[in-house]
Amino acid sequence: MRSVRARAAIGATLVVAVALVVAGLAVLLVLRANLIDQADLQAEVAAREVAGQLALDTAYADLDLDDQEDHPVQVTDEEGRVVFVSEELDAISGTGSSGVTPAAPSAPVGPGDDDDDDGDDDDGDDSGRPGRGEVSSDDPDFSDGTATVDGTTADYRFAAVEATTPAGLTLTVHAGAPLAAEQEAVGTVRGAMLTGLPLLLAVVAGVTWLVTRRALRPVEGIRREMAAITASEDLARRVPEPGSRDEIARLARTTNETLTVLEASVERQRRFVADASHELRSPIASLRTQLEVAEAHPELLDLPGAVADTVRLQVLAADLLLLARLDAGERPGAARLEVGALVREEVSQRTGDRVPVTVEVAEGAAYEVNGSRGQLARVVGNLLDNASRHAEHRVTVRVAADGRGVRVEVRDDGAGVAEGERERIFERFVRLDDARSRDDGGAGLGLAIARDVATRHGGTLTVHRAPEGGAAFRLWLPRAG
């Protein structure tokens, strides 16, 4: 099942089906409970009516059951013997006794039928028995059962009510209320649900399919355009953005932003390859020319020039390799470094600079950062190279605390950097000193490498105007810990 529309339609249908089944069962249970409560009430009323007549010393044959033709009645004594059943009751179950044949006289025994020889005809106070019977006020017991009346068997709900006759005899009256109405109502509702449920589920599935199809139509457009971009390798194309503000519109915008970044990255990579090829061509051609001349005329070999071209090739190859590692996402090391010591070490190794370099670090101060010693040393070296190339008389390096980080500022007293060019100089293969020779001006990778390394160490590298009038490069790195 690879289609999102199909999965959404099936999922929605299953959820609705479960909800409808649960709701339908709840409705049926509530309906059945209400109808059974009504049957209980009818059975209780019928049982109490008969029990009231027995409490008034009504003979069994004289019991009035005309208003209870649909309510079969069974009366049992304290020993569970059947003493009375309603007319045409052929069989009964669920009342505790299945008998339908009375085992007692047709009338209850009253006080006037007592065989006492006293012949006392007073109110009966001397006998110790009550002057009248009573009906139990306790809640009746209810049970389910069946009864066969006039040859027809049906389900009934029986209520059991106790009654005490004036003679002190305790009788239990079982009266039933038919459950046919309850069964018919429940069956009708159940049938309606079983009939309507498939139709409703079909409607839900169809609507979900159509709605999902309409909602995913922009996604299909995005997919087609991405497939076309992949086939044509034209990163200048963009996917269509729907006018809505939903998740699909945000997906389209994010996709276009990703394509923009990817296009810029690919373009930068192409420029990088082209510029690298151009920069490598010059020293390689010069070195080859010198070697060919030396092969033909050994006495004309310019050995210092060949060594210089070789060194230049080595430096350029190292810069390109470092940029390639940075572009590949190489993470800097996590060594703990003291910036002041790192700067002093780099300056001490520079013996051939044409201008002096002054280091200013507070005595006893420790400025520690986490990072790669080699890469940070490369940053400091590149900044010193750039400053020495443009300085007139001196270069100053100052290390100081700056908020929650460490600032390394490299200043020169040269011509400085124009404000409009202060970001451009950090681009790769960009040289503002076009009048200089390639040998003096470098390949234009030093500042680009320095900023990339600073960024990957969580820091920044910016250029400002120095108090001496030249350029002031400020490297900021977060402190360790």
Secondary-structure map:
Layout: H1 4-55, E1 73-76, E2 82-85, E3 89-93, E4 134-135, E5 141-149, E6 152-164, E7 170-178, H2 180-232, H3 247-296, H4 303-327, E8 335-338, H5 339-348, E9 357-361, E10 368-371, H6 373-390, E11 395-402, E12 405-412, H7 438-441, H8 446-456, E13 460-465, E14 471-478
Parallel strand pairs: 9-11
Antiparallel strand pairs: 1-2, 1-7, 3-5, 4-6, 5-6, 6-7, 8-10, 11-12, 12-14, 13-14
Question: Quick recap of the structure?
Answer:
The protein has 481 residues and is an alpha+beta fold. It has eight helices and 14 strands.
Low-confidence stretches: 109-130, 434-439
Task: Report the sheet with the most strands, covering strand number, pairing sense and barrel closure.
Answer: 7 strands, antiparallel
The tally of helices reads: 8
Give the total of domains: 3
How large is the radius of gyration? 53 Å
Q: How does the overall form come out from the CA principal axes?
A: rod-shaped
What's the helical proportion of residues?
40-55%
How many strands?
A: 14
Give the overall pLDDT as a whole number.
84
Question: Which class do the helix and strand fractions yield?
Answer: alpha+beta
Report the order of strands and helices: HEEEEEEEHHHEHEEHEEHHEE
Distance between the termini: 52 Å
Strand content: 15-25%
